Amino acid sequence: MSDLRDLYQDVILEHSKAPRNYKQLPEANHKAEGFNPLCGDRFTIYVTMEGDAIRDISFQGSGCAISKASASMMTQSVKGKTAAEAEKIFARFHELVTGHAEEKNENDLGKLAVFSGVSEFPVRVKCATLAWHTLQAAIEGKQESVSTE
Amino acid sequence: MTTATQKADSRARSARTGSGLDIEKIRQDFPILRQTIHGKPLVYLDNAATSQKPRQVLDAIARYYEGTNANIHRGVHALSERATAEYEEARQTAQRFLNAAHSHEIIFVRGATEGINLVAQTFGRAQVRSGDEILITAMEHHSNIVPWQILCEEKGAKLRVVPINDRGELMIDQLENLLSERTALLAITHVSNALGSVNPIREIVAMAHKRNIPVLVDGAQAAPHIKIDVQALDCDFYAFSGHKVYGPTGIGVLYGKTALLESMPPYQGGGDMISSVTFEKTTYNKLPYKFEAGTPDIAGVIGLGAALEYVTNLGIEKIGAHEHDLLEYATQQVSVISGLQIIGTAKDKAGVLSFVLEGVHPHDIGTILDQEGIAIRTGHHCSQPIMERFGIPATARASVAVYNTNQEIDVLVQGIKKVKEVFA
Question: In what order do the strands lie in the sheet with A41-50?
Fold first, then answer.
């Protein structure tokens, strides 16, 4: 049960039930769809880029608690950041959920550190990173949908 | 927690609806079941994905490699003769299992998927023309959709789909309407892998045959649960996978009626499928070898033979009765869990309990149950059109086999309650 609580931390459950920035963004100039065929998770990420900065970001879609909470918290953590900064956070986040994070970097992740429990559940890594991969695609302006498979 | 009364009640229930099988003794045949997962006894309820293998099957494979291994159909030496005899004996076992009229109607393939692809690529390529229709149903596994899509694309033919109702039952009147002079083949599952619905194959085949339309049956989910008699069903093709019926992975059977198999071009070219080869002309071997190019999975075939014997010795009807009791008990027990909805409530069901839980994604259900030692499948079960039909991204699916018990269903129910606690 302790492992389970590490995975399903209260913050994660709360975000999955009441996701932030969960809406369409009519003025978005970047958009991408992400799909995890394994479990049917499907999200659309909307981004309003101003030069290199993420001025606004939102998402919509359906998925498991981990993927939804990850998308919700991602939108909070990258809003106002530059694309390069977002990329750096994703790199750290990826290290965290795959169990390769150094402790000093973990602290940099702030609230996103609640996803550290994912590293004990390798099949759930894709759930945690789906929104991030989709964000990358949105910023790069790829047209096709992103798949974790 | 389960109270003592509930436990006694479930035991009484299992005794009352008993199939006559000694389940505890049967469990002893499956070494893999004697383990713990995350410190809890393994409760394996993912049998529709693949079943576990009894000692009898594992021993048959080991015995083959330790004492018999040789190539078949060509050696003059003793081992080759023995290997050939065992291989062909397994074909006769499969023939009896399906009640086929002839053993040469049993083609060994990698599984139901390859069996269906074989028919699409041989019968389909030779018979299907532009403007023809292939009829399938809304409850097919991807393996009985995609091979036909590929064929239709190549031939300019059209794929038509028989709808299902909200209970997950095939709409037979619609099926009858969709059968026409354009229909080149009806390809239909015997039992739905995602919903558990059992289709009335005999009645459906009769309907199609009235219009001279051949019928292929995907029996992957039926073979472990239902007595199959291809002569009584009168189907033209029947495919199943060994690994879902307690046999090894990578081996399965395609049954076809002699006349059809004889009229079909070969599937793959190579050794064993020929009678003579010159650079000018090759004469193909007789049935069933025409469709078995190359050295086959001999050990797999022998393992499959052992599995089918194991099932036959227990009695497929008894196995089906036990699983029916389990499914009924599970349905009763989970139905009272608030927020739980069963997907697939057909009158006639086999093996499968698919469900969704309000506010919890199936993937999260699967992870939490796994921590309790319970193995179920979550996702779209290679049946995305079914998920779309019910407007859901995925389900959680518990599927039973002969070695499962009511006590394990109780563990599942407790597990689902734990899921609700985590997400409360």
Answer: A53-62, A41-50, A30-36, A146-147
Pairwise CA distance, residues B83 & B305, whole Å: 13
- Going through B178-315 in order, the beta strands assigned E by DSSP cover 183-189, 215-218, 237-241, 252-256, 274-277, 282-284
> Which is the catalytic residue, given B172, B321, B382, B392?
B382
> In the A/B pair of chains, how many CB contacts fall below 8 A?
54
pLDDT digits (tens, 9 = 90+) for B35-76: 999 999 999 999 999 999 999 999 999 999 999 999 998 878
Closest CA to A64 of B134, B419, B336: B419
* Residue A49 Cα, gap to closest chain B Cα (Å): 31
Strand partners, A33: A44
Which of B38, B359, B361 has its CB closest to that of A63?
B361
Q: Assign residue A58 a region (left: φ > 0; alpha: ψ between -120 and 50; beta: otherwise).
A: beta
Contact call for B361 and A121, based on CB within 8 A: no
Q: Do A3 and B38 touch (CB under 8 A)?
A: yes
ipTM (interface pTM): 0.87
A2-147 folds as Sufe protein. Chain: A (3.90.1010)
CA distance B43 to chain A (A): 17
Cα gap A20→A64, rounded to integer Å: 15
Q: Which residues, including other chains, have CB under 8 Å from residue B53's CB and lie 6 or more apart?
A: B30, B32, B246, B247, B248, B303, B307
Cβ partners under 8 Å of residue B339, min gap 6:
B357, B358, B359, B420
Backbone φ and ψ for B256, nearest 5 degrees, come out as -145, 150
Active site residue B152: no
Taking CA–CA distances from B418, the nearest residue in chain A reads A1
Chain A residues bordering chain B (beta-carbon distance below 8 Å): 1, 3-4, 7-8, 13, 17, 37-42, 62-66, 68, 121, 123-124, 127
Convert the pLDDT of each residue in B185-227 to its tens digit: 999 999 999 999 999 999 999 999 999 999 999 999 999 999 9
Check if the beta carbon of residue B233 is closer than 8 Å to that of residue B102.
Answer: no
* Domains of chain B, each with CATH number or no CATH: 4-52+315-422 (3.90.1150.10), 57-313 (3.40.640.10)
